[in-house]
Design brief:
Layout (H helix, E strand, L loop, with lengths): L3 H4 L14 E5 L3 E6 L20 H17 L8 E11 L11 E10 L3 E10 L2 E12 L6 H4 L2
Antiparallel strand pairs: 1-2, 2-4, 3-6, 4-5, 5-6
């Protein structure tokens, strides 16, 4: 199992924007991470004290980023990706911060090549699905400002 401290080497995010806590499992096609940062009153995604369920997309995106880094063996050199198209998005709750249980974030790679990947994702808490869908990620996107991502 990989801890929050370990995860920082696989994400371009820094400080409180590193939302994931652990990697529970990972193989060639999928990953499961957990997080409790949705309960933190200082979560950087909160607006007016509320953490809306749509913010689960960022949890899913970070899970995908960790998987892509682990699959490519790029510890300490995370690939910068740009979340592209999101399809089949289903929101089954209004807020993430109302879930008392840790978040379980699953991502399954369904397509990839050198420059892009596509994943199915699911964010749940206590066995209850909060959101799910499919997302495309464009990798090593040339116009991403690395210094802005890491804040």
């Amino acid at each position: 199992m990989m801890t929050h401290r370990d995860l920082r080497a696989y994400l371009p995010h820094a400080g409180a924007m590193c939302l994931l806590e652990t990697v529970e499992s990972c193989d060639e096609t999928g990953i499961r991470c957990t997080a409790t940062s949705h309960l933190d009153p200082d979560n950087p995604l909160r607006r007016a004290g509320v953490l809306w369920a749509i913010c689960g997309l960022e949890y899913a995106a970070q899970t995908m980023a960790v998987h892509l880094s682990l699959a490519s063996g790029r510890c300490g050199q995370p690939r910068i990706g740009l979340l592209g198209e999101v399809r089949e998005l289903r929101l089954d709750a209004g807020r993430l911060d109302e879930a008392a249980a840790p978040l379980s974030i699953d991502a399954t790679r369904i397509l990839d090549d050198d420059r892009r990947a596509m994943y199915r994702f699911r964010v749940a808490a206590g066995g209850r699905e909060i959101l799910s869908g499919r997302a495309s990620v464009f990798l090593d996107y040339p116009h991403v400002n690395r210094s802005r991502v890491a804040r």
